[in-house]
Design goal:
Blueprint lengths: L5 E7 L3 E7 L4 H8 L17 E10 L7 H5 L2 E3 L3 E10 L10 H4 L8 E2 L2 H5 L11 E7 L11 H13 L5 E2 L1 H13 L3 E7 L6 E7 L7 E7 L3 E8 L4 E9 L9 H8 L4 H24 L6 E8 L1 H8 L21 E2 L12 E4 L9 H9 L9 E6 L2 E7 L4 E7 L19 E7 L6 E5 L7 E2 L1 H13 L18 E3 L5 E6 L10 E4 H24 L9 E5 L8 H7 L10 E5 L1 H11 L1 H13 L1 E3 L5 H9 L12 H10 L2
Parallel strand pairs: 1-5, 6-27, 8-10, 11-14, 14-16, 17-26, 19-28, 20-22, 26-27
Antiparallel strand pairs: 1-2, 3-4, 3-5, 7-9, 9-10, 11-12, 12-13, 15-16, 17-18, 18-19, 20-21, 23-24, 24-25
Helix pairs in contact: 7-8, 10-14, 10-15, 11-13, 12-16, 14-15
FE2/S2 (inorganic) cluster (FES) binds next to loops.
């Protein structure tokens, strides 16, 4: 059981009281999330020794060779190494502050929004139980004798009917081929894997012995930039391993349009299909290795992806997705044998792909609407999935309207000089000292920094704006040049986030002006997509009762930082919920429950789509959003004041 206790941490100077700090939280992270500045050059790996704080209260850790005996006796500890176990009083000494009276320089942040625990995520959707569409059944059959010499196939079918009430099952031909040996190998004890179909049950595998305790599925989120996999234990109803990789298709183009164009070249479609299958094979191998599970213990796979990714994975021609009136080959694809797609699993394993809504609202969004419970809620909900394609859906259990816009891969670390996915060693949070311009960072897993992920890029841009180092036009300010802002060899401005001595790559980690430019276009597209969608249904943000944010970085994103750059309007953080990878959430449910599979099909049928590619309103909104946070400041009163005070 997760420890749900929370504690109060007070920082001095400034008497900043942080309530509701989760038991076991990292102290440096608590400070960063609250906008309390503490020096941290190494990303929280304990190597720079700059984050010394004086602590009283209940905690664990914080000792380090970086601290002298004298420091230790004076209750000094490294904040990045401290785990909060109770109420704490923390004093930030002068040497650990970012400039003068740092804790006081920032106004309190409006809270981080709701980040859901694994248990909360499980509870988002109600009224389902573990009852997968593919199941394993143990059979103990009578061996044949002179009085009972019916053939093996009929014996199997009779056993299914008598022992599991499965009537009129058909049997896959390749099962019949090896049936005699399978039945006799363990003395007529076998396990039949049965898939439930609209036409009736079908046996897709018969293995010797009772194998019902070994029943797994693999769920995939096939993104344009990244592929994520989870291995699920279908008996225990839990995730046992997960892995991710960049989609190998990236070398053929960064977005779906360039991939579709490439697919029309001779051999292009095949190459793209092989590329994504290569990536899937890698992540499948990783999850099986991590959990020590044999690939023949996998009963089925579920994949959710955007419409183009779904077409390319299954080898279906995506040509007309990019040509008006933007028609996909099929929104609903039948299950296919994963093995026939080239995926290295046993040949009985079928892959279910999520149904799509339109050419640009795909199965990943249907999956997110299922996984986040939007399809069950009465509240008007805005669901936003931030990836290479940004998709937004508004509605509730009665109605759903969706749209999609191309954001580019910036939020997944693509197109960013030192960008990376949100994995260990990625800079996930950044603070910039207003007085000195010095950066302070936190990495995922407190590993040596090796790059920056989407939330880190957003944080960096927001902090640089507020510190007056970055202009609202997305250009660095020449007058801020100095120790941290410099021109590189190509004459471009770049801001140094991590010096080589603290980086895991042995080189400086920087954020460049073209990186900021990519971020500006990405956030502009998402903001414009949301506002155009809401306008199309006659709503504004005030009418939205809850906002659910999905995306690879969702877990680490800070609402106020996202609003500071204009990704969302400024809103009460309590209206936001972060679900992480929404697409995987829905794929999990569909894998566990055949009722959820039906629900996904219903959602895909009921959702309507607003096409933005020829929408002049969207283009106007997009152009207006190419500014930090926006050319129209009425949605950003807090930021307007901060920038006014900073003299921007
Ligand atoms: Fe704590 Fe570097 S030692 S952040």
């Amino acid at each position: 059981m997760a420890d749900t206790r929370t504690h109060t941490v007070t920082f001095q100077p400034g008497d900043i009281v942080c309530e509701g700090v989760p038991h076991g939280a990292n102290l440096l992270r608590v400070a960063l999330l609250e906008g309390v500045h503490i020096n941290a050059s190494c990303g929280g790996t304990g190597t720079c020794g700059k984050c010394k704080v004086m602590i009283q209260g209940e905690y664990d850790g914080g000792r380090s060779a970086k601290l002298s005996e004298e420091d230790f006796q004076a209750d000094l500890r490294l904040a990045c190494r401290v785990t909060v176990l109770g109420g704490l009083s923390v004093t930030i000494p002068e040497e650990s502050r970012m400039g003068d009276a740092v804790a006081l320089t920032h106004e309190r942040r409006p809270g981080p929004g709701r980040v859901l625990s694994a248990q909360d995520l499980e509870n988002l959707v109600t009224g389902w139980s573990i009852d997968p569409v593919v199941k394993r059944f143990a059979l103990a059959l009578e061996p044949p004798d002179a009085a009972n010499n019916i053939d093996d196939l009929d014996r199997l079918k009779l056993g299914l009917k008598a022992q599991h009430q499965i009537e009129n099952a058909s049997v896959d031909f390749h099962v019949i081929r090896d049936l005699p040996e399978a039945l006799r190998m363990e003395d007529w004890s076998v396990t039949a894997t049965v898939v439930e179909r609209p036409r009736g049950p079908k046996v897709i595998q018969v293995a010797p012995g009772n194998r019902t305790s070994e029943d797994y599925s693999i769920v995939l989120d096939i993104g344009t930039t990244s592929v994520y996999a989870q291995l699920l234990d279908l008996n225990a109803g839990r995730t046992v391993a997960q892995a991710s990789e960049y989609n190998d298709q990236i070398s053929y183009g960064e977005d779906v349009i360039t991939r579709i164009v490439y697919s029309q070249k001779i051999g292009g479609r095949k190459k793209l299909q092989e590329a994504v299958v290569r990536t899937i094979t890698q992540v499948v191998e990783k999850v099986l290795d991590k959990a020590g599970v044999d690939r023949c213990q996998v009963s089925h796979m579920v994949a959710a992806g955007n419409t183009t990714m779904t077409h390319l994975l299954t080898g279906v021609n995506p040509k007309y997705i990019r040509i008006a009136p933007y028609v996909p080959a099929a929104s609903f694809l039948p299950p296919v044998r994963a093995h026939n797609l080239g995926i290295d699993v046993c040949d009985h394993v079928h892959m279910y792909t999520f149904p799509c809504v339109s050419s640009y609202v795909g199965g990943d969004i249907v999956s997110g609407i299922i996984g986040s419970g939007v399809f069950q809620t009465g509240k008007i909900t805005l669901y936003v999935d931030i990836g290479t394609n940004g998709e937004a859906v508004v509605g509730n259990r009665e109605w759903l309207v969706a749209t999609s816009c191309s954001a580019g891969p910036a939020f997944e670390g693509g197109g960013i000089k030192h960008g990376m996915r949100a994995t260990r060693g990625a800079i996930e949070a950044v603070q910039v000292a207003p007085s000195t311009g010095e950066p302070h960072i936190l990495t995922i897993g407190r590993k040596q920094p090796i790059g920056i992920c989407g939330s880190g890029i957003i944080d960096a841009a927001a902090e640089l704006l507020e510190a007056g180092i970055l202009g609202q036009n997305g250009k660095f300010k020449e007058e801020a040049a100095g120790e941290w802002l410099r021109r590189n060899q190509d004459g471009q401005w770049e801001y140094v986030l991590v010096r080589a001595e603290y980086s895991g790559t042995g080189q400086d980690i920087v954020i460049t002006e073209p990186d900021i430019d990519n971020l500006m276009r990405a956030k502009g597209a998402i903001f414009a997509g949301i506002t155009t969608l809401l306008a199309s249904v006659g709503l504004d943000m005030d009418a939205v009762e809850q906002v659910i944010i999905a995306g690879g970085f969702g877990k680490y994103l800070q609402v106020d930082r996202a609003a500071a750059i204009g990704l969302f309007p400024e809103m009460d953080a309590s209206r936001f919920t972060f679900v992480g990878n929404g697409s995987l959430l829905g794929a999990r449910l569909v894998s566990f429950s055949k009722d959820m599979l039906k629900a996904a099909e219903e959602v895909a049928r009921m959702m309507t789509n607003i096409e933005l590619s020829d929408n002049q309103g969207f283009m106007d909104e997009y152009m207006a959003a190419l500014f930090f946070p926006h050319t129209e400041m009425k949605f950003f009163p807090r930021m307007e004041e901060i920038l006014r005070n900073a003299g921007s």
